[in-house]
Structures are given as structure tokens and as C-alpha cells.
């Protein structure tokens, strides 16, 4: 979501579009069928992700597994909500694919899926005509290290959260930035968020809203024991290392990646978060800018 006017999309001509839809709301089924026919009329190949094809009764059409989809298409159309987009973002990043994502919210306006359903076809026309604007969203790479071995390696769009379990009291977390010790924080957990993720869990925990074009990482304690442990914004040029001290009443801690995947941590584990090598390309909404989305979602200016 650039502050500058939208520029022509800088990707190759789109001839093949992958379609991924949220699997349970019934209103998505006719949308998938309709957009598949719309693309066929324009001689654009539609490749349906397998679950989406089964949901829509279109298994006779060209299909592809989720893992293989980013390498098989020129663009991915996401029909669903922010959670659906987060899953697709991980797929595209994990495949190291340099393709854009067009995310359409099939319910209310989302922070990530900012394009509404009535704007679906005008957005597709802009993409096919080469006039769509593209935002590059910073991705994060997160790794869990246990005794010199990496046991998890994930790419996320929003955030990495290190938090206690429901059976634990507050946990003590050691934080280092670029190898330099910052502090030990006693809290329910810590959020390491990208600017895109600043309006997700980070916002609910009292963290700052950061424009998506800012090169930064956000560190936000969750319910800190000491009120002077405040959120901090740092440059994204160095990694953040988070190490929880577990033992006694601090029984369990987990690392969560975009709310899509989590892993239980052991004492001595370290969670390292840094900027990913490649950003995610997202088709920009034509009818509203970033601040318009904030005003609508956060009800700014309403009496």
C-alpha cells in the first residue's frame, strides 16, 4: 500500500491464474464457478487448488495441489479472508515464487484482503490489462533452534508469537537484536510483527500501527509484568532472537507462526526472526488507500 500513486504492475503478462478459496462458507462456491467461467471466456487458464475444486464441484477442470500451485500459475486469486491469504503467502514464499496475489474478501473488508467482492472483476481486468498497482509486503523468516539444530523454519507475513500456555504463569523471555542483548521481559509472551502484521495481534496487544512500506520489525510484549516493558520498533536489517526460560511454574511455551502453525518450545530453545529474502507481491485495491482501510476497520472519525 504505497503512499505514491499506483504504478503499472511489474509482472509478466498473466495467462494462467490459480484460484484458492476458503473451504467452508457456502457463498464462495458460486463465486468460484462464476470467476472460472469469466476467465475461460477471456482465454485465461484457471487452475483450481484441489480442495477449492472439490468444494466447487469443478474437479473436471484443471487442478493443482497447494504446494505446487505457485509454480504453475502467473497469479493466485484468493477468495476468502485474511487467514486464507496468510496461508497462501506462506505457500508462495516457500516456493520462492515471484508471482503476485490478488486477495478478495468474501465477507467484510479485511486489513489484508482489502479488495471487496464487488471489485473482483474490475481488479481482474486491471491485472489482465497490465494497469494494476502492486504492493510489496515484507515477509519474515522464523527459525526455532534446539541444541545447534534448526527444528522449524517458516515464512510468515504477519507475525511470530512466543507465548505461554494456559497451564503456565507468565514466562521470562530473553530478547537480543543483532546479537546485542536488549532485555529480559516477564510477560504472557512476545509478538514479533512485520509492518503488515501491525494491525493484527500486535494491535490488539497495544502495539503501534506501522505503514506497510516501512522497513521495520515490531516487538510487542503481551501483558508484561512491568509496565515499562513497552513495544519497540527496530530496523529490519538485523535478526531478533527470543529465548524463553522454562522451568518451575513456567511450564510451557509455544511459538506460533501467522496463527497457522505452532510448536511447543523446550528450555534452551531460541526463536530467531529476520526479514525474508523475498517480499510478497499483493495487488492493490483501486478504490481505497491504506488510510481508508484503517478508517473503515477502526471506525476512525465516527461519533
* Radius of gyration, taken over Cα atoms and rounded to an integer in Å: 20 Å
The CATH homologous superfamily of the largest domain is named Probable inorganic polyphosphate/atp-NAD kinase, domain 1
**Spans of at least 5 consecutive residues with low confidence:** 1-9
Main sheet specs: 8 strands, mixed
CATH topology of the largest domain: Rossmann fold
CATH class of the largest domain: Alpha Beta
Strand residues, percent:
35-45%
Report helical residue fraction. Answer: 10-25%
Structural class: alpha/beta
Query: What is the chain-wise order of helices and strands?
Result: EHEHEHEHEEHEEEEEEEHEEEEEEEH
Characterize the overall form: globular
Which CATH architecture of the largest domain is right? 3-Layer(aba) Sandwich
- Please work out how many helical segments DSSP would assign: 7
Number of structural units classed as domains: 2
Distance between the termini: 27 Å
- The average pLDDT score comes to 91
What is the number of E strands?
Answer: 20
In short:
The chain is α/β, with parallel strands linked by helices and 303 residues long.
General description of the model:
Helix content is 20%, strand content 36%. It is an alpha/beta fold. The two termini are 27 Å apart. It has 7 helices and 20 strands. It has 2 domains: 16-138 and 279-298, Probable inorganic polyphosphate/atp-NAD kinase, domain 1 (Rossmann fold, 3-Layer(aba) Sandwich); 140-275, Tumour Suppressor Smad4. The strands form 3 sheets. Strands 1, 2, 3, 4, 5, 6, 7 and 20 form an 8-stranded mixed β-sheet that branches. It has a 6-stranded antiparallel β-sheet with strand order 9-8-19-16-11-12.
Amino acid at each position: 500500500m504505497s503512499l505514491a500513486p499506483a504504478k503499472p504492475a511489474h509482472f509478466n503478462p498473466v495467462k494462467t491464474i490459480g484460484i484458492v478459496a476458503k473451504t467452508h462458507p457456502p457463498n464462495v462456491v458460486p463465486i468460484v464457478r462464476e470467476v472460472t467461467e469469466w476467465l475461460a471466456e477471456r482465454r485465461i487458464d484457471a487452475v483450481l487448488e484441489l480442495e477449492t475444486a472439490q468444494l466447487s464441484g469443478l474437479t473436471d477442470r484443471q487442478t493443482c495441489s497447494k504446494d505446487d500451485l505457485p509454480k504453475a500459475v502467473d497469479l493466485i486469486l484468493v477468495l476468502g479472508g485474511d487467514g486464507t491469504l496468510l496461508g497462501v503467502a506462506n505457500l508462495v514464499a516457500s516456493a520462492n515464487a515471484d508471482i503476485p496475489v490478488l486477495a478478495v474478501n468474501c465477507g467484510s473488508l479485511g486489513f489484508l484482503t482489502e479488495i471487496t467482492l464487488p471489485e473482483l472483476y474490475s481488479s481482474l481486468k486491471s491485472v489482465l490489462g497490465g494497469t494494476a498497482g502492486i504492493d510489496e509486503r515484507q515477509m519474515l523468516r522464523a527459525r526455532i533452534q534446539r541444541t545447534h539444530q534448526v527444528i522449524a523454519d517458516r515464512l510468515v507475513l504477519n507475525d511470530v508469537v512466543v507465548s505461554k500456555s494456559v497451564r503456565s504463569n507468565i514466562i521470562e523471555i530473553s530478547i537480543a537484536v543483532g546479537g546485542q542483548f536488549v532485555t529480559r521481559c516477564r510477560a504472557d509472551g512476545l509478538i514479533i510483527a512485520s509492518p503488515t502484521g501491525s494491525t493484527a495481534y500486535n494491535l490488539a496487544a497495544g502495539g503501534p500501527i506501522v505503514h506497510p512500506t516501512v522497513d521495520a520489525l515490531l516487538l510487542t510484549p503481551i501483558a508484561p509484568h512491568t509496565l515499562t516493558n513497552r513495544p519497540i520498533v527496530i530496523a529490519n536489517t538485523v535478526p531478533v532472537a527470543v529465548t524463553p526460560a522454562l522451568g518451575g511454574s513456567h511450564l510451557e511455551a509455544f511459538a506460533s507462526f501467522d496463527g497457522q502453525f505452532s510448536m511447543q518450545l523446550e528450555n534452551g530453545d531460541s526463536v530467531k526472526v529476520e526479514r525474508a529474502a523475498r517480499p510478497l507481491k499483493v495487488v492493490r485495491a483501486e478504490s481505497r488507500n491504506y488510510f481508508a482501510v484503517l478508517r473503515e476497520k477502526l471506525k476512525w472519525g465516527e461519533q
